[in-house]
Automatic annotation (TrEMBL):
Protein name per Swiss-Prot or TrEMBL: Branched-chain amino acid ABC transporter permease
The keyword Nucleus appears for this protein: no
Organism: Ancylobacter moscoviensis
Chief subcellular location: membrane
InterPro entries according to UniProt: ABC_transp_permease, BCAA_transport_permease
Subcellular location: Cell membrane
Pfam families associated with the record: BPD_transp_2 (PF02653)
Topology relative to the membrane: Multi-pass membrane protein
Keyword Ion transport: no
Keywords: Amino-acid transport, Cell membrane, Membrane, Transmembrane, Transmembrane helix, Transport
Homology family: Belongs to the binding-protein-dependent transport system permease family. LivHM subfamily.
Bilayer-crossing regions: 147-167, 198-220, 232-250, 284-306, 327-356, 368-391, 403-420
PANTHER family with a match to the protein in the record: AMINO ACID ABC TRANSPORTER PERMEASE PROTEIN (PTHR11795:SF445), BRANCHED-CHAIN AMINO ACID TRANSPORT SYSTEM PERMEASE PROTEIN LIVH (PTHR11795)
Amino acid sequence: MPVPIARTGSVARLALFLGLLLLPGCGSVIDADQARICRAVAPLLHDEETTIAESSLNPVAGSATGLRLSYRARGPLGSGPHWLICSFASQTGAGRFDLVAVDTDRGPVGGIKLHILKRWGLSDVAEASRPALFALGKREAYWLQQALGGVLMASVYGLIATGFALVHGLYGRINLAFGEIAIGVAGVHARLGPGTLALALVFGVAAAALLSWIVGRAVFVPIARRTSSPQPVLIATIAVAITLSEAFRITSGSRENWLPALLNRPIYIAGQDGFVATATPAQFLATGLALTGVSTLLGLIAFSPYGRNWRAYAQDPLMTALLGVRVPLLVGTTFALAGACAGLAGAAMVIAYGTISPGDGLAITLKALISAIIGGIGSVPGAFLGAALVAGVEIVWSSAFDIAYRDVVIYSLLAAFLLLRPGGLLNRAAASPREF
């Protein structure tokens, strides 16, 4: 049965409108590197037997470089709430990593104690005195550090953007629940220990594939078949995303679940003169998993019978069915594959960063959707090209300019593409065959 394909421009405008509605909520942006350093300070201010349970981490009002960490410390002497404020040298450049002051509920940390804390206590977070594998200038090492993080984010955005591209290629509709599927699976991973990480990865990807298949079969496909308008599908999948987000938030408890420290000893790659680009084996593992997923999917679309059937159905659904392609199997496989990509993206984020919050799904969904639209919605290679561009712009802007305006720049980039090149990088301006 032929499925009407919605015009890309209408879907893109709806997506842009949704993103602009949510943009005011992106005003307070926390630098991930500064958050990592500030979180590492809290355990160093207490006894070794004390456990730290984070309550919140927020920017300090009126300070461009301050982060306030609220937490509860549990130790032999009892339990109680505490807070600390980390101040950094600057918002951009290498100064982002320079912790210049720490204030606590028991008073500010003195200069000598701060120096000791930075020199030895934070050596695995921001140390720059260890010898690097390669000599590199401070500026070049700084940009290498950003590129290492950008590759992982491009892979994560690309995997989730693929879910949009795969489904849109068949139905001309957008499923906005993929980001929450990724976050939900990531929340499951965060509760598991090191001995079960491999099993958790397999289980998480399979669970995400099953969840995506259920959403497609129970919600997406029935609505898409009953109407030619894209709005009902968008509204329904937004409702699914909100439901999943709330369900994951309720079941995850009141505190963040952190993956036990796995392969987190830093590797000093390149640099000199006070700054060395570092990465952990966990980051390499996460990036490797994401890039392997990207490569596998591209090969599947290009060379497998599934990829051939997917492209044929995107071009002419009726003729594809008449030629003997099992359309229900193709559609079910597509939703399961899109969900598996989202699950792998969530697993990669948890391995690299240690944890993730249920509310993060919306931001990741929007970034992945923007990647898919910029690349050419309905094109799998375009989704990865768009993800690389979005991640690159994020990294460059966050490194050189005020990070608070990063999302404004990303949404402006989407608006520019919709105006100047509505078909995206691969020029998918109208319904057409989704060639590889």
